[in-house]
Amino acid sequence: MNVWFVAAAVVAAVALGVHLFLGSRLVVRPLLEAAGLDRVPRWLNFMTWHMVSMSLAFTAGGYGWAAWRKDGAVLALFLTFQAVGFLAVALYAAGRGRLPAWRLPPVILFAVITILAVLGLALPATP
């Protein structure tokens, strides 16, 4: 078993729960109710929100699966590249928005997942 992949899976699963329940209330509802926002960007953001939900679910499931498989490193490597990419986009968005990086939850989330996954890729699994 690879405890680092288990930890990455748990972080992704917790993030999914927060994303679905808290984020839907704090981000999606206000977005859908925002006055003056054109229909296309409104529903494009709505769609993207749910695509992120799916991505977090697959990330949690993928790292969970990889944690228990000897051949799981390939999937974990793919998911780690994805996490690094998401982290890069989040950092870029923070910079473009002139926001402190820590104000965007994806920065913290994908930094933690990346660190855990790199440890899982670098360190031997426990029997």
Describe this entry's structure for a reader.
The chain crosses the membrane at residues 6-28, 49-68, 74-95, 107-125. It is a single chain. By secondary structure, the chain is mainly α. The protein has one domain. It contains 4 helices and no strands. The chain has helices at residues 3-33, 39-67, 73-96, 105-122. α1 (3-33) packs antiparallel against α2 (39-67). The protein is elongated, with a radius of gyration of 16 Å. The termini are close together. 26% of the residues are buried. The mean pLDDT is 94.
Short description:
The protein has one domain (about 5-120).
Main sheet specs = none
Number of helices: 4
Order of helices and strands: HHHH
Beta-strand percentage range = under 5%
How many distinct domains?
1
Instruction: Please give the alpha-carbon distance between the first and last residues.
Output: 6 Å
Category by helix and strand content:
mainly alpha
What's the β-strand tally? 0
Shape: elongated
Mean pLDDT: 94
Please estimate the helix content. Answer: over 70%
Poorly predicted sequence stretches spanning 5 or more consecutive residues: none
- The radius of gyration over CA amounts to 16 Å
